[in-house]
Specification:
This protein is mostly loops. It contains 1 helix and 2 strands, in the order ββα.
């Protein structure tokens, strides 16, 4: 994936683990030093990361359609299950 890219990837899970815990490993082949990009303000060296995930049953057409609609409209907040709401001062004033 090119630097700065953001991509949704889908995959099927054949069987839910017995402990109902899904483990995801993300591995990158290169890194980026943020110090030169931020005039030394951010000393981190970063690589690929996981921004989020959405799980649904393969046969749940309504959930899949809602997810696609939220991605297309850049409004993923309605899908955030069991997430604490942001304080008013952290919310986007454009929303």
């Amino acid at each position: 994936m090119p630097r700065g890219a953001f991509r949704w990837t889908s995959f099927d899970i054949d069987r839910l683990p017995d402990d109902r815990t899904l483990r995801v490993m993300v591995e990158g082949s290169s890194t980026a030093d943020l110090a030169p990009l931020t005039d030394g303000l951010d000393p981190r060296i970063v690589s690929v990361g996981l921004a989020g995930f959405f799980l649904c049953a393969k046969a749940d057409i309504a959930a899949r359609a809602r997810f696609l609609e939220c991605v297309a409209l850049s409004t993923l907040d309605p899908l955030a299950f069991n997430r604490e709401p942001l304080p008013a001062w952290e919310q986007d004033p454009a929303m």
